[in-house]
Amino acid sequence: MRILKYLLLVSPLVLLSSCTLPEPSLLGIQPVAEKGGAKAPPKKKPERLNALHNADVDHLPFVQATRDRLEYIRANVEGRYCALTFDDGPHPTLTPKLLDILAERNIRCTFYVVGPLVRTYPAIMKRMVAEGHEVANHTMTHRDIRHISVDRMKTELGDCHKLLVDITGQTPLTFRPPGGGYNDRLMKIIYDDLGYSTFIWTVDTNDWRRPGVDVVTKRLINGASPGAILLCHDIHAPTIEAIPAAVDGILKKGYTFVTVSQLVGLEKQGNVKSAPNTRAVRQLAYFGPGAL
Ligand SMILES: [Zn+2]
To answer: What is the C-alpha separation between 124 and 16, in angstroms, rounded?
Structure first.
């Protein structure tokens, strides 16, 4: 059964939904051989001279959320920190291109990846971790967890978790539900099973709708706010095209990019007593920026 799922996911006819799609759509990732296979990751590219750089954040620990704060729509931090997140990869050509763009600017991000692609592109996964990014769980087959059994959900998450640990050596700390489908009961089960908090997003670029490079750029720059979690997908070429101007625009606004678990750590440093009003923000997250 696992082999069947794997074949389904890496075939050109793979059916995976975008994070914000209620129904599955064609992902269209063509499996290709990785250059260098599972060898050690390439050396870091030198940062650009005379260009905008992210502050050095590698000293900030990845912190696991506690049970009283299972759901993150945004982090409750006052400083200009935000987390850029990419879902549904890794993609064999677009993700390495994205990693080049991020490395030039010393930017750290979070990647919510799907298990079979992790298994197919281990060198890309190792490179992510070597370059300071956070890897996180986006299940094996990208099904809406509300529409499968609890046992199946646990297998989806558990298998992806094991792959990430085995291939990257990094233990994932967070989960993002495919399609944004989840509820309080499932969040508690997931936390009890794997210790994961559930990360949604503050700003949805809706990049999978292909709104155009400029629109994605604008949504990201306008969406940056303290503690914001920005959602993109690294499986769409126009998204990768939008990233240089978008991250430079956010850096110009004085923001520092951190990973989602670094945001958790920053929130805890502030001794936050209560979570923000996530119910209201959840509504916004579901319907996206729209007016931008
Ligand atoms: Zn997704």
So the answer is: 20
